[in-house]
Amino acid sequence: MSLEKRINEDMKKAMKAGDKAAMRALRAVKSAIQLAKAEKGDSALPPERELAILQKQVKQRKDSLAIYEKENRPDLAQKEAEEIAVLERYLPEPLSEEALEAELRRIIAEVGATSMKDMGKVMGKATKELAGRADGKTISAKVRELLSA
Description:
The chain is mostly helical. The protein has helices at residues 3-17, 20-40, 47-70, 74-88, 97-111, 119-129, 136-148.
């Protein structure tokens, strides 16, 4: 089942249950998916694109959460935290530090990277393969660490 269909089904359940946080989060993701579909003129998006949209929604909420906490706005911070919790249910299980390092070492070996000059090749393959299981910033830091060692 596509992410969009799962979200539609879960929106119905959230409406019946009166779960306002789930409704806010799911409506935002559904809207973002529909907007992406309209831009491309497609009737369906590939699963990778749906996942990228979901990740972007989570990242936006995490950024907002950090700002609200910094500005001492617990009411708004709580709403963002609730929505993050709802959206993270749709993301794949994140990789542990050890698993991420093992995957990156495998990718570095596949690409044949030996120095920081090859970081672009590694990052291209790594971000594609590890999409949804690790964020770009974490991948980049770990690749930089492995290539400079």
